[in-house]
Amino acid sequence: MRSSIFTLDMPLDEEIVFHKWEFSPTEHQLPVVTAEEAGPRVTLITGIHGDEVNGPYIAWKLIRRFTEHPEDIVNGLVRIIPAANPFGLHLSSHAWPFDQMDINSMFPGYLAGETTQRIAAHLFHEVSSSDFCINIHSGTHNLFELPQVRLYESCHNHESAARNFGLPLVWLRKATHPLDKTLFASQVGRAGIATFTIHAGQAQRVDVFAAEDTYSGILRFLAGIGVIRAVAPDPTSMPSLVVTSEQIIDVVSPDAGLFMTEQETGINIRKGDVVGSLVDPCVGGPPVIVKSPVDGLLITLKVHPVTYEGDLLARIATRQ
Known about the structure:
alpha/beta
């Protein structure tokens, strides 16, 4: 069932409605139980960044599945917030379009504050009744991310549950900046809710393969905690690689130019393998070859060619 979380008044007598969908077992499936006996409550939230459209597409797939097959829900509650920044989604804007503030950095929010603070407060309140939260993001418009689960420090103890997604990587992420503690995932985790942040694909486009892998992973997770019927196992899936931030190696650009990649995310790359090359058509000199400094899993890759010295070109997750 679709309903409204809250309505935001806009200039010139217009409104923006923040929607949610909720799915629970139908009345004939289960006897009447108390709230404590009703089973796990899961909230999936996407579109906090309006230019990241993989998440809303995945949300649509889940909404259609549970609308067409309500019998799939056997326990608890699945709540889906498909567009946490609906105006940003309309304009393909990463931040809230009016003031360019990042909603993701405004949590837990403030009901008497600025617009983005009020949005964050309403969203935080909506999620606060959950046992689990799945927060879907993409890479930037420059970077493609292999589907992966990131656990902020407040949720490192949920590593075992994160493996249930069956995605290639579980990253136990360490806060690297004081503002990291204001992020949605960090604040919701601090509230005692097991929060899983999934990064998959690239901003400003729907990558069908990354979206399908993430969608399947979410179904595996929901089945694993007993909210939906069991799903068929993926015979091609491998156990997730679990790493800490110290095991994530950034490959940065040694020069400026056009980055021409020779790899794809998801491969096991060896130390010395060519990641790509930098070419400068204005200078016309030989290419600058960029090689992997380590053995590991290639999880992030720069896909927009225009590159400055020091730009992130790739991330490699090492096994040591």
